[in-house]
Amino acid sequence: MLLLAKNSVFPIRSNSLDFTALSNLQIFIILFVFLALIIFFLVNNRSKNLPTDAEAFNYALKALVSGDKDRAYNLLREIISKDSNNIDAFLLLGDIVRDKDVNQAIKIHQSIILRPKISKNKKIEAHTALAKDFLQSGDKSKAEDELNIILKIDSSNKWALLMLKEIATKNENWKEALTHEKKLMKIDLDHKKNDESMLNYYIAMDYKSKDKIKNYLHYLEKSAAAENIYPESALELAQHNKDNVETAISYYKLYAKNKPSQRTLAYNKIENILFDNKQYDEVEILYKELLEKSFDGFALNRLVDILLEKKEVSEAHDLVDRFMKSNYSCHSIRLNKLKLDSESFEVRKSISSLCNEMIKDEIIK
Question: Which residue, 20, 105, 169, 257, has most beta carbons within 10 Å?
């Protein structure tokens, strides 16, 4: 019996140990699987929360539009660190740094061009960016080189032709400007329709550079007579006819009409001509005529000043009140109302200067 008891005890104890070992193994496996699932979930969820390169690029664009260049810069750097072949990110990054460090922008954009496999469109974008970089740095010669490269890739690239024409115009290289203008007229029908006057202006200026005054005047007057006038032709004719008061004034008026943003330049020129010829009353008539046709903040400001100089305060008040009662409740009218309410010459002078500056910056229209 004792032997049986002993034999019966040992098997039971052995089975208990095997069961315990198996349970620990199961617990370990369960814990391992559970932890693995947690890690997988966290990693997977994190990857979902991280933006793709396309999303990050869009975020960079939005940041740039909202004026947050630093955020846009950092987002683009992150994209490039993950994908050094992202040309769009490089292009935009170079554009962002252009204002702060134009040399760095040049290096970034040049690195794109040196890539062996780059599409035609991306090449054009890179050379366009480089042209802008060189223009920013003041190196017009290298900018022209980039623009000409663009035209070799795409001979009808309107932006490149416009920029080359602008550079030639500033350099008074009229023949070259004319060449670019003719190309623009060939590739763009709207340009031909709107800039026929400009073409004649460039032809005229080319003749002027050759001292062929008769031809110069012929094409210049043809330009000024066009339905869609290129304003610079009127300004050029006004300066050419400086000794003929009436003719010069008529062309300055034409220039002011067709280039409102620069009308103050024209009116100041007219005032100088009239004062030089002691035609003081004509200055007042000029601004009265302008205000009869339509409202002009500059004309109002100058006319009020003239009336105050003549001590015709009552008439100046009537003039301002007339526009105050109308729909023209703009800043120039309010400023002139304040000017009339002040007795101080210095205050009036300051208000007039402020008004002219605001009109110059086109805050008032």
Answer: 105
User: Maximum CA pair distance of the chain?
Assistant: 148
The Cα–Cα gap between 202 and 200 comes to 5
CA nearest neighbour of 226 among 215, 216, 234: 234
Domain with residues 50-154, CATH architecture? Alpha Horseshoe (1.25)
For residue 69, the number of C-alpha atoms closer than 13 Å in the C-beta half-sphere is: 9
Question: What type of residue sits at position 175?
Answer: K
DSSP 8-class letter at 64: H
- Specify the pLDDT at position 7: 45
Q: How far apart are CA 300 and CA 287, in angstroms?
A: 7
CA dist., res. 217 & res. 63, Å (int): 52
For residues 156 and 188, give the distance between their C-alpha atoms in angstroms, rounded to a whole number: 9
Q: Which of 40, 47, 71, 46 is nearest to 58 (CA)?
A: 71
Residue with tokens 């490269």: 149
pLDDT in tens, 282-323: 999 999 998 888 888 889 999 999 999 999 999 999 999 888
